[in-house]
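Thought: the user wants the 3D structure for the chain below. I'll pass the sequence to the structure tool as-is, report back what it returns, then summarize two notable features.
Action: structure_tool
Action Input:
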Amino acid sequence: MSSDHTDQSRPEPIRWAPRLAPQLLRRLYECDVTGLHDQDLIDEVGMTLLVRCESIRRVSYRLCWKCGEPLLGERTHGSMLQCQDCHRNTPWTTYQRSYKGRRVHGVRAMPIIQTFMETYPHAGTWATKMLAIDTLIHGVHESLKHGQDPCITPLAENLIEGTAQETFALLESLAAGDTSTPGLQATRALWNAKLQDYRRRLAKRQSITSYPPPPSLT
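Observation:
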Protein backbone atom coordinates (compact mmCIF):
# COMPACT_ATOMS: atom_id res chain seq x y z
CA MET A 1 0.00 0.00 0.00
CA SER A 2 2.84 2.37 0.88
CA SER A 3 4.45 1.87 -2.56
CA ASP A 4 1.14 2.68 -4.29
CA HIS A 5 0.86 5.84 -2.24
CA THR A 6 4.39 6.84 -3.21
CA ASP A 7 3.72 6.28 -6.91
CA GLN A 8 0.64 8.49 -6.79
CA SER A 9 2.14 11.30 -4.72
CA ARG A 10 5.39 11.73 -6.63
CA PRO A 11 5.12 13.08 -10.18
CA GLU A 12 6.61 10.72 -12.74
CA PRO A 13 9.73 12.19 -14.41
CA ILE A 14 9.01 13.48 -17.89
CA ARG A 15 11.75 12.70 -20.38
CA TRP A 16 12.00 13.57 -24.06
CA ALA A 17 14.17 11.96 -26.71
CA PRO A 18 17.63 13.57 -26.99
CA ARG A 19 18.99 15.44 -29.98
CA LEU A 20 21.33 13.78 -32.47
CA ALA A 21 25.09 13.95 -31.91
CA PRO A 22 26.55 16.12 -34.72
CA GLN A 23 29.46 13.78 -35.38
CA LEU A 24 27.03 11.05 -36.45
CA LEU A 25 25.47 13.33 -39.04
CA ARG A 26 28.88 14.43 -40.30
CA ARG A 27 29.97 10.78 -40.68
CA LEU A 28 26.75 9.94 -42.51
CA TYR A 29 27.31 12.59 -45.17
CA GLU A 30 30.93 11.52 -45.57
CA CYS A 31 29.73 7.96 -46.16
CA ASP A 32 27.21 9.20 -48.69
CA VAL A 33 29.65 11.25 -50.76
CA THR A 34 32.29 8.47 -50.80
CA GLY A 35 29.76 5.75 -51.63
CA LEU A 36 30.77 3.67 -48.59
CA HIS A 37 27.25 3.21 -47.31
CA ASP A 38 27.09 2.28 -43.63
CA GLN A 39 23.59 0.87 -43.12
CA ASP A 40 23.92 0.72 -39.34
CA LEU A 41 24.92 4.39 -39.24
CA ILE A 42 22.07 5.64 -41.41
CA ASP A 43 19.58 3.61 -39.39
CA GLU A 44 20.96 5.04 -36.14
CA VAL A 45 20.72 8.58 -37.46
CA GLY A 46 17.27 8.07 -38.93
CA MET A 47 15.78 6.42 -35.86
CA THR A 48 17.30 9.01 -33.51
CA LEU A 49 15.72 11.76 -35.59
CA LEU A 50 12.43 9.86 -35.75
CA VAL A 51 12.02 9.52 -31.99
CA ARG A 52 13.16 13.12 -31.51
CA CYS A 53 10.48 14.24 -33.98
CA GLU A 54 7.89 12.31 -31.98
CA SER A 55 8.94 14.15 -28.82
CA ILE A 56 8.66 17.48 -30.65
CA ARG A 57 5.19 16.50 -31.89
CA ARG A 58 4.02 15.60 -28.39
CA VAL A 59 5.32 18.80 -26.83
CA SER A 60 4.03 21.00 -29.66
CA TYR A 61 0.50 19.60 -29.30
CA ARG A 62 0.68 19.09 -25.51
CA LEU A 63 0.32 15.32 -25.68
CA CYS A 64 1.10 12.72 -23.04
CA TRP A 65 4.80 12.00 -22.84
CA LYS A 66 4.11 8.27 -22.44
CA CYS A 67 1.29 7.33 -24.79
CA GLY A 68 0.95 10.38 -27.04
CA GLU A 69 -2.73 11.00 -26.33
CA PRO A 70 -4.10 14.50 -25.54
CA LEU A 71 -3.64 15.90 -22.05
CA LEU A 72 -6.72 17.54 -20.56
CA GLY A 73 -6.55 20.47 -18.19
CA GLU A 74 -5.77 24.17 -18.01
CA ARG A 75 -2.31 25.38 -18.92
CA THR A 76 -2.04 27.66 -15.92
CA HIS A 77 0.02 27.71 -12.75
CA GLY A 78 -1.41 25.30 -10.16
CA SER A 79 -3.48 23.30 -12.65
CA MET A 80 -3.17 19.56 -13.35
CA LEU A 81 -2.97 17.81 -16.70
CA GLN A 82 -4.51 14.37 -17.09
CA CYS A 83 -4.21 11.77 -19.82
CA GLN A 84 -7.54 10.10 -20.48
CA ASP A 85 -5.85 7.09 -22.05
CA CYS A 86 -3.12 6.03 -19.60
CA HIS A 87 -4.48 8.10 -16.68
CA ARG A 88 -1.19 9.82 -15.89
CA ASN A 89 -1.46 13.11 -14.03
CA THR A 90 1.10 15.89 -13.83
CA PRO A 91 1.10 19.57 -12.85
CA TRP A 92 1.15 21.90 -15.84
CA THR A 93 4.25 23.61 -14.47
CA THR A 94 6.08 20.24 -14.33
CA TYR A 95 5.16 19.50 -17.93
CA GLN A 96 6.22 22.99 -18.99
CA ARG A 97 9.57 22.78 -17.20
CA SER A 98 10.27 19.44 -18.90
CA TYR A 99 10.71 21.11 -22.31
CA LYS A 100 11.60 24.74 -21.57
CA GLY A 101 15.07 25.55 -22.88
CA ARG A 102 15.48 22.10 -24.43
CA ARG A 103 14.31 22.95 -27.97
CA VAL A 104 11.56 20.32 -27.90
CA HIS A 105 8.97 22.57 -29.50
CA GLY A 106 8.40 23.14 -33.18
CA VAL A 107 4.78 23.79 -34.06
CA ARG A 108 5.70 26.04 -37.02
CA ALA A 109 7.80 23.24 -38.51
CA MET A 110 5.26 20.47 -37.93
CA PRO A 111 4.45 19.96 -41.65
CA ILE A 112 8.12 19.08 -42.29
CA ILE A 113 8.32 16.91 -39.16
CA GLN A 114 5.07 15.12 -39.98
CA THR A 115 6.24 14.38 -43.52
CA PHE A 116 9.46 12.82 -42.19
CA MET A 117 7.55 10.75 -39.63
CA GLU A 118 5.27 9.41 -42.36
CA THR A 119 7.91 8.73 -45.01
CA TYR A 120 11.03 7.60 -43.16
CA PRO A 121 9.59 4.37 -41.69
CA HIS A 122 8.77 3.26 -45.26
CA ALA A 123 12.14 4.25 -46.75
CA GLY A 124 13.73 1.00 -47.88
CA THR A 125 16.89 2.16 -49.66
CA TRP A 126 19.91 4.26 -48.80
CA ALA A 127 18.78 6.97 -51.22
CA THR A 128 15.25 7.31 -49.86
CA LYS A 129 16.54 7.40 -46.28
CA MET A 130 19.16 10.04 -47.13
CA LEU A 131 16.64 12.23 -48.92
CA ALA A 132 14.21 12.04 -46.00
CA ILE A 133 16.95 12.90 -43.48
CA ASP A 134 18.38 15.68 -45.66
CA THR A 135 15.00 17.32 -46.22
CA LEU A 136 14.26 17.21 -42.49
CA ILE A 137 17.50 18.74 -41.21
CA HIS A 138 17.36 21.52 -43.82
CA GLY A 139 13.85 22.47 -42.80
CA VAL A 140 13.10 25.74 -41.02
CA HIS A 141 10.61 27.33 -38.68
CA GLU A 142 9.20 30.48 -40.23
CA SER A 143 7.55 33.03 -37.97
CA LEU A 144 5.79 36.11 -39.32
CA LYS A 145 5.55 39.13 -37.03
CA HIS A 146 3.20 41.97 -37.82
CA GLY A 147 4.88 44.50 -40.09
CA GLN A 148 8.04 42.44 -40.48
CA ASP A 149 9.49 39.94 -42.92
CA PRO A 150 9.50 36.28 -41.87
CA CYS A 151 12.25 35.26 -39.45
CA ILE A 152 13.64 31.78 -39.97
CA THR A 153 15.11 29.35 -37.47
CA PRO A 154 16.74 26.09 -38.61
CA LEU A 155 14.75 23.06 -37.57
CA ALA A 156 18.14 21.38 -37.09
CA GLU A 157 18.48 23.31 -33.82
CA ASN A 158 15.68 21.13 -32.44
CA LEU A 159 17.19 17.96 -33.85
CA ILE A 160 20.98 18.21 -33.46
CA GLU A 161 23.08 18.97 -30.39
CA GLY A 162 24.81 22.36 -30.34
CA THR A 163 24.24 26.10 -30.31
CA ALA A 164 22.59 28.06 -33.10
CA GLN A 165 25.93 29.06 -34.61
CA GLU A 166 27.26 25.51 -34.32
CA THR A 167 24.19 24.21 -36.13
CA PHE A 168 24.60 26.69 -38.98
CA ALA A 169 28.27 25.76 -39.28
CA LEU A 170 27.50 22.02 -39.22
CA LEU A 171 24.93 22.25 -42.00
CA GLU A 172 27.33 24.25 -44.14
CA SER A 173 30.16 21.77 -43.57
CA LEU A 174 28.31 18.55 -44.44
CA ALA A 175 30.06 16.66 -47.23
CA ALA A 176 28.39 17.01 -50.61
CA GLY A 177 29.38 16.60 -54.24
CA ASP A 178 28.62 15.01 -57.58
CA THR A 179 28.73 11.55 -55.99
CA SER A 180 26.18 12.41 -53.30
CA THR A 181 22.74 10.84 -53.35
CA PRO A 182 20.77 12.50 -56.20
CA GLY A 183 18.60 15.27 -54.83
CA LEU A 184 20.85 16.32 -51.94
CA GLN A 185 22.52 19.11 -53.88
CA ALA A 186 19.13 20.54 -54.83
CA THR A 187 18.14 20.62 -51.16
CA ARG A 188 21.43 22.35 -50.31
CA ALA A 189 20.80 24.95 -53.05
CA LEU A 190 17.34 25.74 -51.67
CA TRP A 191 18.76 25.98 -48.14
CA ASN A 192 21.50 28.36 -49.26
CA ALA A 193 19.01 30.50 -51.17
CA LYS A 194 16.79 30.77 -48.10
CA LEU A 195 19.75 31.75 -45.92
CA GLN A 196 20.94 34.30 -48.47
CA ASP A 197 17.48 35.85 -48.47
CA TYR A 198 17.45 35.80 -44.67
CA ARG A 199 20.83 37.60 -44.55
CA ARG A 200 19.62 40.19 -47.05
CA ARG A 201 16.48 40.96 -45.05
CA LEU A 202 18.42 40.98 -41.79
CA ALA A 203 20.86 43.52 -43.19
CA LYS A 204 17.90 45.79 -43.98
CA ARG A 205 16.50 45.44 -40.45
CA GLN A 206 19.45 45.73 -38.08
CA SER A 207 17.05 45.93 -35.15
CA ILE A 208 16.09 42.25 -35.50
CA THR A 209 17.75 40.27 -32.68
CA SER A 210 15.91 36.93 -32.80
CA TYR A 211 18.94 35.12 -34.20
CA PRO A 212 22.40 36.23 -35.33
CA PRO A 213 23.19 35.99 -39.03
CA PRO A 214 24.54 32.61 -40.14
CA PRO A 215 28.16 32.17 -41.15
CA SER A 216 29.28 33.24 -44.61
CA LEU A 217 28.06 30.94 -47.37
CA THR A 218 31.19 31.45 -49.46
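Final Answer: Structure generated. Residues 2-204 form one domain. The two ends are 66 Å apart (CA to CA).
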